[in-house]
Design goal:
The complex is a heterodimer. By secondary structure, chain A is an alpha/beta fold. Chain A has 11 helices and 8 strands. Helices cover 51% and strands 16% of the residues of chain A. Chain A starts with 6 loop residues before the first strand and ends with a helix. Chain B is an alpha/beta fold. Chain B contains 16 helices and 14 strands. Classes of the chains: A alpha/beta, B alpha/beta. At the A-B interface, helix 4 and strand 5 of A face strand 2, helix 8, strand 11 and strand 12 of B.
């Protein structure tokens, strides 16, 4: 993964709505996205809203495992060079063993990882392993993260810093735009990584605003999953949405 | 922040600073003498402390071995030990300037205790409860509503305690500025396992004093049921330095360890979930397992990190009782002593009865009777079928 440079980062849950269809959706996402984030489904996604919860549930019912997720990435990487981020909760990593997990992710072709419930304070070992295996580590920051903590997050992050748009869960709506705007501005002044903003972003217009405020990339997840769940013609609707988002990200 | 390797604060970046602030506030407020006086006042005048340590003569004679004592937490206001922690944390939340309380509940006892404490101290309360638990603990749902709490039914996952915690955590990720999450068990990210243990350790301190006053010595063994483990850690903690006192936690063996159960320490693996490194029932891939117990309050796939630590140290032992054993103990205590125990507590009692049988007459075993069983009558009678019902 090079630099973000106005990236559209699309998220999909591995194995949703089935392993076979995820493969097809990855192709589709790669046509519009600069980076793709693949979520390893988890039984209890406590940081996720209803839409991603549902996608996890469906994927697990399809029998998706870490192993199958790695194979999915590997197959994708055979004919795409779109950078891939693996998003996961910590327990699947811990259970397999951090080293074994990160190594497997790297060999599958993942360029970076985000571990939702592994804060920097518990990440020392994980960071060592990521460095050794050449996997980038992305950490989250929030609009109210203290400057002191933001600097630590910046130092631990390689790739970019993932700024959540607001305090809440994935897919929920941001109701404090001013806070986010200031947070992006403030962060840009003190961190060395680029910043991608995610959580609840739905339209090209919103994406354009975020780019205008100084974001280097935008992460879109729930809005895409929601189309796959509820769209009349998911493929067509998805293309329209991705096109809109891409325009928003690139226009400014 | 840790109990050996266990515990920790494995949460998203949003909640990390919130927990940090909670820890700082707790350390400051809990040392304040005004806070302690207020807490003790409510515990004695509102909740009914101290609770008796009762020598169960009839049960002891029936079993024919060691002397069985019951710590009567079932006599507390609300019918369980949960009120000890609920009052403590509501007072803490008030001192922190919070206006709203959210809590999860399994059997409903923690929800009821939180609703009571919230009403008493003037904070809004919202309780998250799995739909399956709400069905098997209907009377507690009614009590919570009557006490003025909102009850949010959770229909995700297994619709039990674990899912109620998930949903409470999701709410808290945006509501934390004015809301305190009042965790009811000794689980979750730091500082919760410590806060809950501290507020519950009144059980063990009282028991220790009462037993010594009556007998001039320490008991030989103490037994408590373990779901997340709040009543057990509250009972064990003051005895940790008394190396002659055996400490035994009893998990829910459900239909047996080869079938459905929720015995995380007996059959689980180390994992990281709900903010803590502890033991969890999970599959090879680290997905959290669907668990089961006849007792809604024990129906949780993990266990508090301090119990994991005590197991690792060898200071406490963890065993299990099955649904059937707990039911037998439920009936036995009702028939011998006129005390209807909670199904959760009946797990501890079932194991204690086995141990007491092998003890000599001058040995003593204390069971923490963490709650009363009125809430379980429907479950027990349905399980046994009308013709076999006691």
């Amino acid at each position: 993964m090079k630099t973000l440079h106005r990236s559209l980062i699309s998220f999909i849950t591995a194995g949703f709505p089935s392993l076979h269809t995820t493969r097809e959706y990855l192709h589709l996402l790669s046509e519009y996205s600069d980076v793709i984030e693949i979520g390893l489904p988890f039984s209890d996604p406590v940081a996720d809203g209803r839409v991603i919860q549902l996608s996890d549930k469906i994927a697990l019912r399809e029998g998706v495992t870490a192993e199958k997720t790695f194979r999915l990435a590997q197959e994708f990487k055979e004919d795409h060079d779109t950078p891939l981020i693996l998003m996961t909760y910590f327990n699947p990593v811990f259970r397999k063993g951090t080293e074994a997990f990160v190594d497997a992710a790297h060999r599958a072709g993942f360029d970076a990882m985000i571990v939702v419930d592994l804060p920097i304070d518990h990440a020392e070992h994980y960071l060592d392993i990521c460095r050794q295996h050449n996997v980038k580590s992305i950490f989250m920051a929030t609009p109210i993260t203290s400057l002191e903590r933001l600097k630590i997050i910046d130092r631990a992050s390689t790739g970019f810093v993932y700024m959540v748009s607001h305090l809440g869960i994935t897919g929920s709506v941001n109701n404090n735009a001013a806070l986010l705007r200031n947070a992006i501005k403030r962060a840009k002044g003190i961190i060395s990584n680029e910043i991608a903003v995610g959580f609840g972003i739905e339209s090209g217009e919103e994406a354009a605003t975020l780019m205008k405020w100084g974001a280097d990339g935008v992460v879109v997840g729930s809005a895409l999953i929601n189309i796959i769940l509820n769209g009349q013609d998911p493929e067509e609707d998805l293309r329209r949405k991705l096109n809109d988002l891409r325009k928003g990200v690139k226009q400014y | 922040m840790k109990f050996g390797i266990f515990g920790g604060r494995f949460v998203s970046e949003i909640l990390y600073p919130v927990l940090q602030e909670l820890e700082d506030s707790y350390l400051r407020i809990s040392r304040d003498s005004g806070f302690r006086i207020k807490l003790n006042n409510y515990l004695s005048r509102y909740a009914g402390r101290p609770t008796p340590l009762y020598f169960a003569r009839n049960l002891t004679e029936k079993i024919g071995g060691g002397r069985i004592y019951l710590k009567r937490e079932d006599l507390l206001h609300g019918g369980a030990h949960k009120i000890n922690n609920a009052i403590g944390q509501v007072l803490l939340a008030k001192a922190m300037g919070k206006r709203r309380i959210i809590a999860e509940t399994g059997a409903g006892q923690h929800g009821v205790a939180t609703a009571m404490a919230g009403t008493l101290l003037g904070l809004n309360v919202e309780i998250f409860m799995g739909r399956k638990d709400a069905e098997r603990q209907r009377s507690n749902v009614k009590r919570m509503r009557l006490l003025g709490a909102g009850v949010r039914l959770v229909s995700t996952g297994t619709e039990t305690l674990k899912d109620a915690i998930n949903e409470a955590l999701r709410d808290w990720a945006s509501s934390f500025p004015d809301t305190h999450y009042l965790i009811g068990s000794a689980v979750g990210p730091h500082p919760y396992p410590t806060i809950v243990r501290d507020f519950q350790s009144v059980i063990g301190y009282e028991t220790r004093r009462q037993f010594i006053d009556d007998n001039g010595k320490l008991p030989d063994e103490i037994v408590a049921c373990v779901g997340g483990g709040s009543n057990a850690i509250g009972m064990f903690y003051p005895f940790l330095g008394d190396h002659g006192v055996k400490l035994t936690g009893v998990e829910a063996g459900g239909k047996g360890l080869n079938s459905a159960h929720s015995a995380a320490l007996s059959a689980g693996e180390k994992g990281v979930f709900h903010g803590m490194l502890s033991y969890f029932l999970q599959d090879q891939d680290g997905q959290i397992a669907d668990v089961y117990s006849i007792a809604a309050g024990l129906d949780y796939p993990g266990v508090g990190p301090e119990h994991a630590y005590l197991k690792e140290l060898g200071r406490a032992k963890y065993v299990y009782s099955t649904d059937d054993e707990a039911l037998q103990a439920f009936i036995t205590l009702s028939k011998t002593e006129g005390i209807i125990p909670a199904l959760e507590s009946a797990h501890a009692l079932a194991y204690a009865m086995k141990v007491a049988k092998k003890m000599t007459r001058d040995e003593s075993i204390i069971v923490n009777l963490s709650g009363r069983g009125d809430k379980d009558l429907d479950t027990v009678f349905a399980y046994m079928g009308d013709e076999n019902a006691p």
